[in-house]
Amino acid sequence: MSILVVTGTSTDVGKTVVTAALAAAAREAGLSVAVCKPAQTGVAPGEPGDLADVTRLSGVTAVVELARYPEPLAPDTAARRSGLPMLRCADVVETVRALDDRHDLVLVEGAGGLLVRLGAEGFTLVDLARALDAPAVVVAAAGLGTLNHTELTIRALSAAGLACAGTVIGSWPDEPGLAERCNLDDLPAVTGVDVVGSVPAGSGRLDSASFGAAASTWFDGTWLKATLTAR
Q1: Which residues does 106 contact at the CB level (< 8 Å), separation at least 6?
Q2: Taking CA atoms, which of 106, 171, 182, 219 is between 20 and 30 Å from 20?
Q3: Residue 181 to residues 84, 166, 197, 219, Cα–Cα distance (Å)
Q4: Per-residue pLDDT tens over the stretch 184-218
């Protein structure tokens, strides 16, 4: 079976839509897929969160959210302020491994950037990926600032001994400017990691059929096939 962690260089870079696109592409390839969002913040009980968007776009219904906090903060801070229990890394690992037993691919979407504290004892997505022995896909912004943010993220993964499966641009503009065009060449040069996909801006507003039909075209075909079949 296969587990893939989806992290971002920061918040609001398109992690959820990229997660949905990977899930949709995997379904199109005939794989059974599950998605885990360990911590959802900024959403009240009963309201749709990121996993609702994943299901709406990709059609994947095997989705698991372990903790939810109402304030839009880092999960550990949001937990303290709400008085709700903090996540434990061991519980997330147990949940993801159980999903892995029953599915061909499990996608684990982080919260914010790579080193955001997710719960008890300050564990991060680095700790989770290490415990799961899972590579990470890094979702990056397209424009100014992304070279620094992406290189820092990939350096942190490398320092932790974790594999980076590739970089994906989470929202590629309809009319890219000079910075966006240059970044496509500069990102691999400064990070040592290929840009393996880009999701067009606004893709999260597509209907499920249109999203599913297009999702696999947003990634490098050779990379996608190798990643989805790496078990």
Answers
A1: 1, 2, 3, 4, 33, 34, 35, 36, 96, 99, 100
A2: 182
A3: 44, 18, 14, 17
A4: 999 999 999 999 999 999 999 999 999 999 999 99
Q: If we measure between CA atoms, which residue out of 216, 183, 212, 178 comes closest to residue 197?
A: 216
171 labeled binding residue: yes
41 annotated binding-site participant: yes
Q: Is residue 116 marked as binding?
A: no
> Which burial class, exposed, middle or buried, applies to 96 when counting CB atoms under 10 A from its CB (0-12, 13-18, 19+)?
buried
Structure tokens at 38: 């360990």
> Residue 1's pLDDT is what?
55
2-102+116-133+143-229 is a CATH 3.40.50.300 domain? yes
Side-by-side strand order, sheet with 195-200: 63-69, 33-41, 105-113, 2-8, 136-140, 164-172, 195-200
User: What residues contact residue 189 under an 8 Å CB cut-off, 6+ apart?
Assistant: none
Question: What residues act catalytically?
Answer: 37
Amino acid at 141: A
- 111 annotated as belonging to a binding site for a ligand: yes
Which structure tokens are listed for 171? 């929202």
Mark the ranges of the chain whose per-residue pLDDT is less than 70. 1, 230-231
